[in-house]
Design brief:
- The chain is an alpha/beta fold and about 230 residues long.
- The protein has two domains: about 110 residues, 3-Layer(aba) Sandwich (Rossmann fold), CATH 3.40.50.1860; about 110 residues, 3-Layer(aba) Sandwich (Rossmann fold), CATH 3.40.50.
- It is about 50% helix and about 15% strand.
- The strands form two sheets. It has a four-stranded parallel beta sheet, with helices on both faces.
- Strand 1, helix 1 and strand 2 form a beta-alpha-beta unit.
- Helix 1 packs across helix 11 and helix 5 packs across helix 11.
- The longest helix has 19 residues.
- The protein is globular and about 45 Å long.
């Protein structure tokens, strides 16, 4: 079994989902007392968020690159960035290590292609919806990506940062997010990408008729295939 490197803490709620999902997956596939070999570097979410808000992306890159080097030195065979927003500095993180850093958008694009989906809706932090660095990576794989109307961006963002990263799951917020997704479905999306790990804590496939592609679950499944290959 290969050792999985995780760069987490963005937020720790989502990192816990990664940790649990990877261990559950290994146990299901290997049985008995089997668990995943994981090296985790967890950063301070307040620190990286402050750097993001001040647009100091060089500092973000330096911080996450150092975390990546740490998990590589600890024996990781490949690395996952347990976040969507901070994939903005993916290239710097990958350049800092000699092992693969598995880009989340590449994994999600492969899932879309497997299911024959060419047009998707993308829901995430306001930053990731507005800057489009993640959507552009999906576009490079031939996936047509639409995001919600700008008037919804802060609504979704506040649900993520004021509630979900603190472990608060509110039914009213679920209804608000579902209404946004329904608008995108009406606009022609063939599936919705929950492009923020915390959104998977709020919205499930059972809540929607449109196919749901969760970035965290896709990342976890890909990592399990790599680790157990």
């Amino acid at each position: 079994m290969k050792t999985i490197g995780l760069i987490g803490g963005m937020s720790w709620e989502s990192s816990a989902v990664y940790y649990q999902g990877l261990n559950t997956g290994v146990q299901q596939q290997l049985g008995g007392l089997s668990s995943a070999r994981i090296v985790l570097a967890s950063v301070d979410f307040a620190e990286v968020t402050a750097l993001q808000e001040s647009e100091d992306w060089d500092a973000v890159a330096t911080l996450l690159a150092a975390a990546a080097r740490g998990v590589e030195q600890a024996g990781a065979d490949f690395i996952l960035l347990c976040t969507t927003t901070f994939h903005l500095v993916y290239d710097a993180v990958q350049a800092a290590v000699s092992v693969p850093v598995v880009h989340l958008a590449d994994v999600v694009a492969a899932r879309c292609q497997e299911q024959g989906i060419t047009k998707v809706a993308f829901l995430g932090t306001a930053f990731s919806m507005e800057r489009r660095f993640f959507c552009d990576r999906l576009d490079s794989h031939g996936i047509d990506v639409n995001v919600p109307d700008e008037m919804h961006h802060q609504t979704v963002d506040s649900i993520i940062y004021d509630e979900l990263v603190r472990g608060e799951i509110k039914p009213n917020s679920r209804r608000r997010v579902i209404s946004v997704i329904d608008e995108l479905w009406d606009a022609g999306a063939g599936a919705v990408i929950l492009g923020c790990t915390e959104l998977e804590l709020l919205v499930k496939q059972s809540d929607l008729e449109i196919p749901v592609l969760g970035v965290t679950s896709a990342h976890i499944e890909d990592a399990l295939k790599r680790a157990l290959a």
